[in-house]
Design goal:
The chain is mainly beta. Strands 16, 17, 18, 19, 20, 21, 22 and 23 form an 8-stranded antiparallel sheet that branches. A 4-stranded antiparallel sheet has the order 8-9-10-11, with no helix packed on it. The N and C termini lie far apart (about 115 Å).
C-alpha cells in the first residue's frame, strides 16, 4: 500500500531502500541515514515483515548539500570523497597515530577524528622491532620497542647546539623528535612486565636475558645484581610463542541449557586440571565453535561448566577433550607496601598450571640494590593502590580470580595471616651457605641460630666431594656429598621420656637463648669409606648449604624472626 508524507521543507529528497534488519517489538533503526524526526517516522520506515524474505526498508534522505534552499543537488552516483580503487590493509607495527583535539571548555571533541590528509602518524625505525608499549611521562612519551627504547617529545623538538648541548623549541607536530636511550635494550614481547614507581620504570628484556630499570640515570640491568646466571636460565625457559594444552574430563550434560545457546554440563576433574573461561571443546578431533564462558565450583571434583554453544542434545555423557592456547608471561608490578619491584616468570599462565615448577615470583629492593625474596604465589595481575598492594592469581593448589590484598593482618596473633596466599598457607624458608676458610676441609658438627622459636632445618648438605662410578656397574658417574637428617623445631621436637617423665628435645634445644642442635649424618657410603651415615655425627666438606623454614605448629601464621645462624666445625685431617 502507498504511504504519503507531507514535506514541510523547500528542498528535494531521495527515496532509498536497503536490506532490512528486523528486531522483535521494535522498528528498524535508521542509524546515520538522513531521515528527519520531523517527518513523523519512528527512526525509519520499513515495508513488509520479518517473514517476508523480499522485504525492503525505504528511507527518505535529503539531497541538497547543507540543506540550503536551492543549493547544489547530488544524486546517488556522486562520491563523497576520493578513495583508492584497490585499498589494502596495512599493518604498521612501528608507527604511532594520534587523533584530533579535545577541549572540555569549548566542547570540542575530535578524539574519534583521524584525518588522513594531515600528518597524524609518526614512524620509528622498524629494525628495532614492533612497538610493544607506550608510557606518557610529563611532556614526553616513552616508546618501548622489542629491541630499543625511545622518548618522543610532545609539541616540541630538540636542537643540538655547536657546544654539544641541547635546546627545545615548540613544534607544529604533536609527536616531535624521537630521542633514543643509550643502550641496546628493549621490552621484547613482554609488555606485561612493565611497572612504575615515581621516575623508575621496570621491565624485562627476554631477548637479552635481562631485567631492566629505566630512571633519570638511564638504563640499568638490575638482573646483574647477584642474579645474572639465574635470569639467564629462567628467562630462556619462557616460551615466546603460543602453546596448546589439552586435558581430558568425564562429563554429564543431560540437555540442560542456560538461556538458548549456553550448555551447562557437569565435569569430573582431577588434581592439576584447571578449567577456566576461554577454553574450547574438542569432539572427534575437531575443535568446536564457542568457548567456556563460566566455571562454577572449580575447587571441587564435580564442576559445573557453561559453554557458549549448544551440543547437549547430541551428547549426554562421556569423555571430552578441552584445549587451551597459552603463551608464557613475565608479569611485573610495584609493591608500594614493601617498596619493591615484583616480577613473576611464568612458563604457563595461572589457568594452565599452578605447580611450582611452572613459575618463579621474586622481588627487587632498591634500598639494598638486590633481589631479596622468592614468593609461593603466581599472580595474574599485580598493582598498588594508595598504600596497599593487591594481586589476583593463585597458589600451588588454588586458582582464583578474586582480588587479594597482600600483607593484610588483623593483629599479630597465633592465627595471623603470614605465609597465607589465596587461602593456602606455605612455610617461609631461607637458604644460606657456611663457607669459612673455603680452602680447608671441615667437619660440621652442630648448627645454631638466634631468633624466634619455630624454625626447623629441612636440609644440610656439603659441597660435592668428587665423582665415583655408579654402584650398579654402569659407566655413569655419580656426585658424592654428605647430608644430614632434618632437624625439628623446638616445639615439634619435644617429647616426654617414658622412664623419667622429663620433657626432652629431638630437634632444636634452647641454650643461653640460642637454639642449638647436633647434626646427624645421613650420607650414603662412598668408595673406600669405612664410617658413614648414622655411625658418625656431622658432615664433611669445604662448605655446607643449609635450608631452614618455619614449622607448621609454632604460632602458625605469626611473626618469625631470624637474626643469625652459625655452625661449629673442626678441621679435617688431610
Amino acid at each position: 500500500m502507498a504511504y504519503t508524507i507531507e514535506v514541510d521543507f523547500y528542498n528535494s529528497y531521495m527515496l532509498k531502500r536497503v536490506q532490512p534488519v528486523f528486531r522483535s517489538n521494535s522498528s528498524y533503526t535508521s542509524g546515520n541515514v538522513g531521515v528527519f524526526p520531523g517527518l513523523g517516522l519512528p527512526g525509519g520506515l520499513y515495508v513488509g515483515s520479518a517473514d517476508n524474505a523480499k522485504a525492503r526498508c525505504f528511507y527518505i534522505e535529503e539531497s541538497r548539500i547543507r540543506g540550503g534552499y536551492n543549493n547544489t543537488s547530488t544524486d546517488q552516483g556522486v562520491r563523497a570523497y576520493l578513495d583508492e580503487q584497490y585499498p589494502l590493509q596495512q599493518n604498521r607495527i612501528n608507527t604511532l597515530i594520534y587523533s584530533g583535539v579535545y577541549n572540555s571548555r569549548t566542547g570540542v571533541n575530535q578524539t574519534n577524528v583521524f584525518n588522513v590528509s594531515e600528518s597524524i602518524t609518526k614512524s620509528i625505525d622498524i629494525s628495532f622491532g614492533s612497538i610493544q608499549k607506550t608510557y606518557s611521562e610529563d611532556t614526553n612519551l616513552i616508546i618501548f620497542q622489542e629491541n630499543k627504547i625511545h622518548r618522543a617529545l610532545i609539541d616540541k623538538d630538540t636542537i643540538y647546539t655547536t657546544e654539544s648541548g641541547t635546546q627545545t623549541q615548540a613544534a607544529a607536530a604533536v609527536i616531535g623528535q624521537f630521542v633514543p636511550y643509550k643502550g641496546e635494550y628493549g621490552i621484547s614481547k613482554n609488555p606485561e612486565s612493565f611497572a612504575i614507581y615515581n621516575y623508575r620504570k621496570y621491565f624485562s628484556d627476554r631477548n637479552r636475558n635481562a631485567i631492566m630499570r629505566l630512571s633519570n640515570d638511564g638504563l640499568t640491568e638490575i638482573s646483574m645484581y647477584g642474579m645474572r646466571d639465574y635470569f639467564r636460565d629462567r628467562l630462556a625457559e619462557i616460551p615466546n610463542k603460543r602453546e596448546k594444552k589439552t586435558i581430558s574430563v568425564t562429563y554429564k550434560a543431560g540437555g540442560a541449557t542456560n538461556g538458548t545457546s549456553v550448555d551447562i554440563f557437569t565435569a569430573t576433574i582431577t588434581s592439576g586440571q584447571n578449567i577456566t573461561p576461554g577454553m574450547q571443546i574438542i569432539i572427534g578431533g575437531i575443535t568446536q565453535p564457542g568457548y567456556i564462558t563460566l566455571v562454577e565450583n572449580p575447587d571441587f571434583a564435580t564442576t559445573r561448566i557453561y559453554y557458549s554453544q549448544n551440543f547437549a542434545n547430541s551428547l549426554s555423557s562421556g569423555t571430552l577433550l578441552i584445549s587451551y592456547f597459552y603463551k608464557g608471561k613475565i608479569k611485573g608490578g610495584w609493591d608500594i607496601y614493601s617498596k619493591s619491584y615484583l616480577v613473576s616468570l611464568q612458563k604457563s599462565p595461572t589457568q594452565v598450571s599452578q605447580e611450582l615448577e611452572s613459575y618463579k615470583t621474586l622481588s627487587f629492593d632498591e634500598e639494598i640494590n638486590g633481589w631479596v625474596s622468592f614468593f609461593t604465589y603466581k599472580p595474574t595481575q599485580m598493582f598498588s593502590m594508595i598504600n596497599k598492594y593487591y594481586t589476583t592469581g593463585g597458589s600451588t593448589t588454588v586458582n582464583t580470580t578474586e582480588l587479594y590484598q597482600q600483607y593484610y593482618s588483623n593483629a599479630p596473633t597465633p592465627n595471623d595471616t603470614r605465609g597465607l596466599f589465596y587461602g593456602t598457607r606455605k612455610p617461609s624458608n631461607i637458604t644460606f651457605v657456611f663457607n669459612v676458610q673455603p680452602d680447608a676441609m671441615k667437619n660440621f658438627n652442630t648448627i645454631s641460630y638466634e631468633g624466634s622459636n619455630g624454625w626447623k632445618v629441612v636440609s644440610y648438605n656439603s659441597g660435592f666431594t668428587g665423582q665415583d662410578p655408579n654402584p650398579d656397574g654402569t659407566s655413569t658417574y655419580v656426585q658424592n656429598d654428605d647430608d644430614t637428617l632434618s632437624i625439628k623445631s623446638y616445639d615439634e621436637g619435644s617429647y616426654v621420656d617414658a622412664n623419667t617423665g622429663y620433657t626432652l628435645r629431638a630437634g632444636f634445644d634452647r641454650k643461653e637463648n640460642r637454639y642449638v642442635a647436633n647434626l646427624r649424618n645421613n650420607s650414603t657410603p662412598m668408595a673406600g669409606e669405612i664410617i658413614y651415615g648414622a655411625q658418625m655425627s656431622g658432615i664433611k666438606g669445604y662448605f655446607a648449604t643449609v635450608k631452614i623454614e618455619t614449622d607448621n605448629t609454632t604460632q602458625l601464621g605469626g611473626p618469625k624472626e631470624l637474626w643469625a645462624a652459625a655452625s661449629s666445625y673442626s678441621m679435617s685431617s688431610y
